[in-house]
Amino acid sequence: MSKGVLVDLTKCIGCGSCTVACKMYNNNKWIEDRAPTSGENATLADENWTVVQKCRLDKDTGKNLVQIDGMSSPPPPGENEIWRFVKRQCFHCKEPACASSCFATAFRKNESGETVYYPNLCVGCRYCMLACPFSIPKFEWSKALPVLAKCMMCSDRLTNGDAPACVTVCPTNVMKFGEQEELLKEAKEIIYSDSRYDRYIYGEEEAGGTAWIYISDKPFGELGFKMNVPKESIPAYTKNYMHNTPIFAGIWFAVLAGLYAITSIASRRPAVKENAKKDKTTEKTE
């Protein structure tokens, strides 16, 4: 059965232990100058596969104080302000759009639930960046020989039956690793038995379902989650077209071959005529 992770945002204190574990396990560099791993400006990037974003909310309404329309700068801290911390990484869709859009098969979904990226197969087309509904894959713009980068859920650890590195170091048990279906059942039991929780599980239906699912006591839209993600998997929209891609590719190849043959014949005609004139001239001379 596929593995997954249940993230309870009510338990996160924003310590950033998960970001450190991710860096160490994947041997990624710190790039705080352009992309911090924690705080209000935490950003997923080529070297940041896991970040913890700080969200400032109104205590009474739950509204995000920084995302209020028309506000050019965040308000100063106030007594009616509360904080929530959101761990972000690849969601590892059950039917990943990055894999379906990659003709080089550089993205592959494993039976254990994680979507793995193979840079040695990547051609740098970046279709995955356009296809992903969560905007997860990042390009290594600063490198001479760039590839893509994203969380791979510590695939080697999953192969050995271990949880991802970020899960194992969390001091407040924000994340729980286990079977996807069992985690989904547990998430439903929690949100319907405790009135503090928002009765919504992010990742249950988004993009057809994801291996990482979230529960929270505040609306996910106010926490920066994309709420306009299609409920149906992205590959479901494109599989008929992708299925016909080899056929169209074959037809296009035949068209190009035909055009090449025509232009080659046309380009040889002047030479043929010139040679014919030379032959006639030689015959008259003789």
What is the compact description of this entry?
A three-stranded mixed β-sheet has the order 9-1-10, covered by helices on one side. Strands 2-3-4 form a three-stranded mixed β-sheet, with no helix packed on it. It is built from eight helices and ten strands.
Task: Provide an overview of this structure.
This protein is an alpha/beta fold and 286 residues long. It folds into two domains: 3-240, 2-Layer Sandwich (Alpha-Beta Plaits), CATH 3.30.70; 244-285. 33% of the residues lie in helices and 15% in strands. The protein has eight helices and ten strands. The strands form four sheets. Strands 9-1-10 form a three-stranded mixed beta sheet, covered by helices on one side. A three-stranded mixed beta sheet has the order 2-3-4, with no helix packed on it. It has a two-stranded antiparallel sheet with strand order 5-6. Strand 7 (138-139) and strand 8 (148-149) form a beta hairpin. The longest helix has 41 residues, at 245-285.
